[in-house]
Amino acid sequence: KAGVTQTPRYLIKTRGQQVTLSCSPISGHRSVSWYQQTPGQGLQFLFEYFSETQRNKGNFPGRFSGRQFSNSRSEMNVSTLELGDSALYLCASSLGGEQFFGPGTRLTVL
Amino acid sequence: GENVEQHPSTLSVQEGDSAVIKCTYSDSASNYFPWYKQELGKRPQLIIDIRSNVGEKKDQRIAVTLNKTAKHFSLHITETQPEDSAVYFCAALYTGTASKLTFGTGTRLQVTL
After folding, report:
1. Segment A35-54, tens digit of pLDDT
2. Which of A31, A42, A58 is opposite residue B99, by nearest beta carbon?
3. Which of A40, A49, B30, B71 could form a disulfide with A68 if both were Cys (CB 3.0 to 4.6 A apart)?
4. A94 contacts B99? CB cut-off 8 A
């Protein structure tokens, strides 16, 4: 089975722009979660989608949003980028608890 | 919400020695406790996990123990090797609702020759 894939792997944006990241889960996994990883804050939960519905949301501003498609692929969007949004964005797909991470998208905001 | 504390933040051991990383969680409803290993520039990889109906689980050189009463769980690595050097994260989750993992702050393990 193919693992979790994320695109793009690297992204450079400037403040005020918006960005869309994509995640394709492991075949058969219906849950996709997104995490932000920074040196200062560690791994923080953004949100989780299951069967195209947001099932849980972390403590991030409304500039962070996401969606899931009928094929379980998920996207997350960050609008009005800030310098502090520079981070590794990881998605994880799961089936019954175990979560498997994708390689991440490294976002740099200049 | 859930809060997971992890100690130590850094750990240096000699090759062949054992390493122990400890975590505590706050939400007694949490019932799934995975451990992830993250090498530099790579994704977190699930190395072992334990569910709340089990007290201990072992997989070759790694083992995890869970004390539900004290809300503690620990990772034990025996006969450490240089390739064990990485950052290790513990996490907790309640599988009954959403798949929201709450992570500890990570332990940087350095295995020296």
Report:
1. 999 988 889 999 999 999 99
2. A31
3. A49
4. yes
Q: Note down pLDDT in tens along chain B; length 113 residues.
A: 889 999 999 999 999 999 999 999 999 989 999 999 999 989 999 999 999 888 999 999 999 999 999 999 999 999 999 999 999 999 998 877 666 889 999 999 999 99
Nearest Cα of chain B lies from the Cα of A101 at a distance, in angstroms, of 6
* Phi, psi dihedral angles at A107 (to 5 degrees): -105, 125
Contact B101, B1 (CB under 8 A): no
Query: Which chain B residue is nearest to residue A41, measuring alpha carbons?
Result: B105
